[in-house]
Batch of 4 targets.
Target 1
Amino acid sequence: MEFGTERIRRHNVCVRAFDSIKRDTIGEIDLILTINLVDFEVTFQVLDTYTSYNFLLGRPWIHAAGAVPSTLHHMVKFEHEDQKIVVHEEDEQSIYQDLLVLCLKASEGSEHIVHQAFEVVVVDQCEEGNPCPQPFLSNASIMVAKEMIKHGYKPGKGLGTSLQGITKLITLAASKKFFGMGFQPTAVDDKWADEQKNNVHKLPTYPEYPPVQQKQRKFKTDISDKIKEEVTKQLKARVIRVVRYTTWLANVLPVPKKDRKTRVCVDYRDLNKASPKDNFPLPNIHILGDTCAKHEIQSFVDCYAGYHQVLMDEEDAGKTAFTTP
């Protein structure tokens, strides 16, 4: 494709292809794409690489056009001005091969055969009898380390702009104000936390469902001790509180984890039956992935399961009561 480079806008985006190789884009460009006499203005990321295609259309265009692609039938359908538009595949073509990678050459007369693409892998050589080296860091850890070093970080130094700051991990400390990691809140932080208390969870129930109080279950002594340990931990963190008179009452369910610890869950099945179903559940994973597009870094830190900081409405808090052995 031929177009002026002055139309390309600089944009720092990293792309990872199917071979997991990192490639930086040159920038982005807006192009008018005509599909079956229908014009679309699409923003493309420009890369300088060997490919078997001119451009790729992803989910942003599919959602904008309301298109329905089918890999089985090799076609795309969408509606435009009350008309159904169908785009079929072109004739079979051989995949363009990278000249830098050795490959088998097709014999004369077999150019019409579609060649299967192959994956490029990195091979480490090791002497016979010696164990092969194995990576000890995940791809995400390596990517974070590269970004830190690229921005001037030096091992053994702090994370400040002048490499100042602590060099060792902070141990979690108990806090009375829901602030972890040794953070000391100021008056402004306390005010902000108090304002966040106005954002509460609502738990409506159908009026025709009467409150259910489950009979207390009995557990073995070792399981009861683990339940007591987890509940005491939540009480000290003020995530839960003791209540004397209840309308709804549920039992706890101990679930063993892979690290041989015990996760304490609550049997809210009766409460779920009496609660209206959410018509707008959590978004699918591909929607979460789309929202991360055009961003350099994505944080996977969940603030030490900080979702519990959204309080339950006082009128509905009694419905979440549970009993322990």
Note: The two ends are 71 Å apart (CA to CA).
Target 2
Amino acid sequence: MSWRIPFLGSQQQQTDPNFQDIPTQSWYPPPVVGSSSRPSTPTSSGASQHQSASDHPRPSSHGQPSPAEAAGIIGRLKDKSIEELQRLLKDKEAYNVFFNSLDQVKTQNNVRDELRKETLQLANRLTDLERQKDDIMRSYSPAALLDKLQTSMAKLDEESEELHGKFLEKDTDLPTFVQKYKKLRTAYHKQALLHLAGQTSLR
């Protein structure tokens, strides 16, 4: 934000050197050839356009305070002495302190800080999402899937060996052993075939 603060007394009235050369009736339109020499008066439509323009003031130019904001700044400056005003003009630090104390500046600084905070939060969130995406991609990569399949095969093989040991120690009857053992070995061999096919496709 780069406003120029309108200090009291800094805008002295200066007479335009060309002001005296402007005729008092210069706003009349030029006479039309063949018409009477009497100057024509402005039409009601021109007056209405002038009134409409005055009712809708143009917005302040970029980087300049609006009339309402300028009035607020001038109101702050009215209570200051000549010495204080001169110090604001000469002392950059004092000027910055006064400038940052304006309500308009405080509002814009707050908005800027909020936007910066939200931007940082979004950046952190984006980083987390990218990390999660990378983790998912790694966990479902062909090599990772083969490792998970290998782990599952080892677990099935261990369970089937434990069941076989229980049968030898007569801790389970034959029908139960056959049913469970067949189920475990069938799952094991299916996964073994998948693992072999996966290894072959990666070569």
Note: The mean pLDDT is 74.
Target 3
Amino acid sequence: MQFQRQRMRCDGGSFELSKSELYSSMSSEGVKSYFQRVNVSGIWKLQENTMTMLAAEIIGTAMLLYIGCMGSVGSMGFAPPALQTALAFGLSVNFIIMTIGHISGAHLNPAITIGAVILGLKSIPTGMVYILGQLIGAIVGYGILKWITPVELFNDGKSNSTESLCVTVVYPGLSNVQGLLIEIFCTCFLICAACATWDPRCSHLTDSVALKFGFSVTLLSFTAGPYTGCGMNPVRSFAPALWNGNWKDHWIYWVGPILGALLGTFAYQLLFTETQPNRKKSICLTDIKPVTVLS
């Protein structure tokens, strides 16, 4: 397989791109987002390969609920500490991004999709299809875990626990407003991280996106988990609530992440987005030359 790429310095010298530079420049959703944003006329049209991306989102979100919530089961041995639960979801995100990130972007979360639509990375109909797929995937993933785990073992192993496995609830000592603010700000931080990965200026760092984003989820889950369970993802909270019939304060896990997505996206746009990409005058693109990357 050949890619035609060569750089030339403006002083006349030239050098070829390394493999990592080639992969980074072609796989980064951030670079694509600058050159392939949905134009105004296409904002209400389904994007190409939307059905393939739908399948990826269904499978990816199912994996997130299945693996993440499995890491919270504590009836077989010992009750999982908070760090284990946080790592289960964070590393699940890492794994899923590596698996389907190149297909759909691995949003897995309506809040992420809302941010992508606002930035013009996804059209409105495609965003709606994404969210539908995420809902389906979450319900299926949690349902499979509930189906294969015996009822008497389907719990977090904590003797004083009154909530069903993986159901997000506000800590009893907090008010609904405080719980809502936790969800808003945590989702806002997560969306800012997503906007940064889509930023063209971050295109040279795409090799580690999966790992960095996974650990971002781990950090937020570990710190905010005791407050609200740190949903940050409406469908992640919806599936356990649906399967267990537990709707207490559930509205917080929709309103909070949606408001957080809006706040994070618009804040990043207002504070950090460049209207014109910076061009380094010392480096120019010149006539193409084949470079063998994969045989």
Note: The longest strand covers residues 2-4.
Target 4
Amino acid sequence: MTLVKERRHQQALRLSLPPPIPPADFRHRPSHCPPVFPATTNPRCPYIDDLSDLEKLTVLGHENGGTVYKVRHKRTSSIFALKVLRFDRNAVTLQKQAVREAEILEHVDSPYSVRCHAMFDSDDDLCFAIEHMERGSLHDILLLRKVMPENVISAVAHGVLLGLQYLHRMQIVHGDIKPSNLLINARGDVKIADFGVSRVVAGKHDSCDRFMGTCAYMSPERFDPERWGGDHNADGFAGDVWSLGVVVLECLMALVCAIRFGETFEMPKNSSSEFRSFMRRCLEKDWRNRGTIDELLNHPFVVRSCYGSMEGLVDFD
């Protein structure tokens, strides 16, 4: 295992895209996504009929091909995040990615993933009005270079596993689990965000090497499918488990961790036996033997978080 001592900007590894999911008929109209649970920002959660209903307050961040704004609903003063993806007619790859994200967001409705409240499309951009997560991302917290205590890491892992359990039951592989895609609200709830490289699998096993992602969090079968048995046979869901393992390790080490697949993995000496056991199940190099979501939700490292709260994460920063 190699530990990189300086946090770095994560560059997406660009690979060819799979055939896009047939897009829902959302073009030129808002697509409302009413949640089962009320949004944490404001319990009223109004439907947004037009982009003119939203007032831009500040820029929250930039992503590949777009910008995220903090916005306010003029009539109710509810706060949202507005993700604006901009592309020209020649940006075919970005358009396919945006269509796929829109299709998935229309169907995802879980308290463990960031909710979409409306979508708007034009010739040059696609806008998502999504749940505003007040405390930013896990990446923002890790940039403070603080080592998280294991009880907080356990709570983070528990929330992400519940989100992945929901997505996988819907046959959705997220494909890019990493700290910047795990957002935190005012209560300390961790939610999965950014479905730009996610996909719906066609069957039990689906090729896992044909879409974008982030190198540092890629599983062996995605990074080198010929060597690690990922070509046309790998379970794409197992790749999300590996990525979560890298995130959990990063939380403990306060460093970006680059794992060399051909070397013996050494566990941090300052970690508990429960933590080390959890990591071994997540970072099993053979995807066939890697821990499953249901197994990991019952792992002693994760179960102990069920008896606490998320207050530790709220106070952590």
Note: The CA atoms of residues 197 and 212 lie 6 Å apart.
